């Protein structure tokens, strides 16, 4: 039975952009598992699979419904141990948790600060209202004030913050070593979010992080490239 993946989209159902859903897309491909994407708009997320407080990604695999990208990756490794591992040796899950925590506190906030208006523009009218009201309600600022990262100073700060990634990727092709694992997909999801949502460039092509990202785009038959970059 094919796995169903509830995948966040905007007005164009063919341009899924959620960083967390992209982690799961890559994880499913890594495991060699077939999946059918279920395009899901912001206003539909909470009620996915009969829920009242859902977040995406969510998968349905037979009778099993799993929510949250990391929980889904753990489920896939436990449910399909005969397929390529997402975490590897004991301790791999803990290390991937560190990567996820670092990425969500370092990369995600910066991407939001340079692309939040581009994300808003991807949505239909109903979801634009929802997106604006929910984000402005949490931050107490208009979206226009939240997009404050496109300055040389902020870009330079972000570049420095990526130095742990850069130093690692100068030594090896993937964060996990010679081949990718879920830790790579965690960080890939963040940069894929920006690539699909916004034409704003944050990495020079010569940057080892940019070169790693290009390698990730080519993985699994070019899955990452199946959705064109924003223009």
UniProtKB/TrEMBL annotation:
Record-linked Gene3D superfamilies: 1.20.1050.10, Glutaredoxin
Domain GST N-terminal, chain residue ranges per copy: 8-84
Keywords, alphabetical: Transferase
Name by which UniProt lists this protein: Glutathione S-transferase
Transmembrane annotation, as ranges: none
Alphabetized CDD domains for the sequence: GST_C_etherase_LigE, GST_N_etherase_LigE
Transferase found in the keyword field: yes
Example GO molecular function: maleylacetoacetate isomerase activity
PANTHER family: MALEYLACETOACETATE ISOMERASE
Gene Ontology annotations of biological process type: glutathione metabolic process; L-phenylalanine catabolic process
Top-level division of the source organism's lineage: Bacteria
PROSITE patterns recorded: GST_NTER
Pfam family membership, one: GST_N_3
InterPro entries hit by this protein: Glutathione-S-Trfase_C_sf (IPR036282), Glutathione_S-Trfase_N (IPR004045), GST_UstS-like_C (IPR054416), Thioredoxin-like_sf (IPR036249)
Entry keyword Transferase: yes
